[in-house]
Amino acid sequence: MTTASDIEPVHPVDVVIALGANLGDRLAALRGAVDGLRATPGVEVVAVSSVYETEPVGGPQQPEYANAVVLVRATIPVMALLERAHAIEAEWERVRAERWGPRTLDIDIIDAGGAVSDDPVLTLPHPRAHERGFVIVPWLEIEPDATLVGHGRIRDLKVDTTGVRISSDRIPTE
């Protein structure tokens, strides 16, 4: 089993990233996350899903989320991409006070080229992605033939999509 720190792309690796926000200007935060990824050397934004309004899963009572999924092509190590994601979250004043609590911005790496890692800092694929409608629905939109290691094609997953609604809001793709 490899760890996330062992995953250094020799060739570009497609990485699936989930975005979510339910505090402050949610759409601005999602756009800021995409802009931040786009500005990262060694990261090319390939596709951005529509924005989806979703009900919170777990945690305390809180506002609805705005969610999206981004497909990037990375030539930097996946741990460097995770560090960049955390820096972008910090720019949006993300506070990690409560598990599954409300947040200004959440950036999760879901899949990195099909790599498998049990690194405590970054488990790949994301251990709950296959259960999350707010990840699978937008991911299907931008990569309908994708597979998730250990779970097969994402279009075949039996995931609860109750409360996942497409929004009229958009994130610019360029």
Structure report:
Pathway: Cofactor biosynthesis; tetrahydrofolate biosynthesis; 2-amino-4-hydroxy-6-hydroxymethyl-7,8-dihydropteridine diphosphate from 7,8-dihydroneopterin triphosphate: step 4/4. Its EC number is 2.7.6.3. Residues 99-110 form the 7,8-dihydro-6-hydroxymethylpterin-pyrophosphokinase domain. Pfam families: HPPK. By secondary structure, the chain is α+β, with helices and mostly antiparallel strands. The chain has one domain (4-166): Alpha-Beta Plaits (2-Layer Sandwich). Helices cover 21% and strands 26% of the residues. Strands 1, 2, 3, 4, 5 and 10 form a 6-stranded antiparallel beta sheet that branches. Strands 6-7 form a two-stranded antiparallel ribbon. It has a two-stranded antiparallel ribbon with strand order 8-9. A hairpin with a 3-residue loop joins β8 (147-148) and β9. The longest helix is centred in the middle third of the chain and has 14 residues, at 78-91.
